[in-house]
Design brief:
Elements: H1 2-24, E1 26-27, E2 40-46, E3 51-56, H2 59-64, H3 66-70, E4 82-89, H4 90-95, H5 104-111, E5 114-123, E6 133-138, H6 140-152, E7 156-157, E8 160-161, E9 173-182, H7 188-198, E10 203-204, H8 210-220
Antiparallel strand pairs: 1-10, 2-3, 2-6, 3-4, 4-5, 5-9, 7-8
C-alpha cells in the first residue's frame, strides 16, 4: 500500500510539474520577428475544461466557410458577429451537451484515445471584458494563416467538410469530422494553442488546460 501511495504521489507531482513547465516555458522560446500592424481582432473563449477561437465575420469569412451555411448554420445572418471554432474528442463532445449529462464511456475515451470533431458555433456580440474572454490582435498574413489552420482541421470528403448528421446542441451550431486523434495529452486546448501560434502568438510549451493556456498567453503576449 505504501508503495502504491508513493507511486501515486510521484505521479501527481510529475503531472503538476509538467503542467507548470508547460505553462511557464514559452513556445516558441524566442519572440518572432516583428509582424505587421495587428488589424484583425480574434477572441479566445474558455470554460472550465475547454477553449474555442472566435473569428469576426465579414464577407470573406462567409465565402471561405460557406459550407457552414450549406449545412444550415446561419453564419450569413446579419446579427452574427463571430464564428466560433473548437476541436475536441468525438465521444465527449457529442454526448455531453451539459455537465449533467456526463457519462463514463465518453470520459474514458477522452482520457485515452478518441476520434476528433470540429464544433462550429455562431455568436452575436461578445463582451471582451468578460473573464472567460481574451482578445488578441493579429496582422493580415497571420490571420490568413490562422484560417488556413482551422480549415485544415476539418476532415474532407468528396463534397468538402463532412457534417455529422443529427449532431448539434442547438440551431446555431454544427459538428464536423476532424483530422487528428484526441487524448488527454493532445486535447482541445493544445489545438487552440497550436492555432494561436500559427497566428503569431506565443503560448506555453504544453497547455492541456484553459487556465494554463490563459496564463501563458497573458505572460507572453
Amino acid at each position: 500500500m505504501r508503495k502504491l501511495l508513493r507511486f501515486l504521489a510521484l505521479l501527481v507531482a510529475a503531472v503538476v510539474l509538467a503542467v507548470a513547465l508547460g505553462t511557464l516555458v514559452p513556445r516558441p522560446l524566442w519572440p518572432a520577428a516583428a509582424a505587421g500592424e495587428g488589424t484583425r481582432r480574434i477572441l479566445v473563449l474558455k470554460n472550465a475544461i475547454h477553449t474555442d477561437i472566435a473569428i469576426p465575420v465579414d464577407d470573406e469569412m462567409r465565402r471561405r466557410f460557406r459550407f457552414l451555411t450549406d449545412a444550415g448554420l446561419p453564419s450569413g445572418a446579419p446579427e452574427v458577429r463571430y464564428i466560433v471554432f473548437g476541436w475536441g474528442g468525438r465521444a465527449f463532445y457529442l454526448e455531453t451537451p451539459t455537465w449533467s449529462q456526463v457519462k463514463a464511456l465518453p470520459v474514458f475515451k477522452a482520457l485515452t484515445l478518441d476520434a476528433s470533431v470540429m464544433h462550429v458555433d455562431v455568436a452575436g456580440d461578445i463582451t471582451e471584458a468578460h473573464p472567460d474572454v481574451a482578445g488578441f490582435d493579429v496582422d493580415k498574413d497571420r490571420f490568413a494563416a490562422l484560417l488556413d489552420f482551422i480549415e485544415a482541421s476539418f476532415q474532407q470528403g468528396p463534397s468538402g467538410p463532412i457534417v455529422i448528421d443529427n449532431a448539434a446542441y442547438s440551431n446555431f451550431d454544427r459538428f464536423y469530422e476532424a483530422n487528428g486523434r484526441f487524448n488527454a495529452l493532445i486535447g482541445c486546448n493544445t489545438w487552440t494553442a497550436a492555432a494561436l501560434r500559427t497566428a503569431g502568438l506565443r503560448t506555453g510549451w504544453w497547455n492541456p488546460l484553459p487556465a494554463s493556456l490563459g496564463l501563458s498567453m497573458r505572460l507572453y503576449n
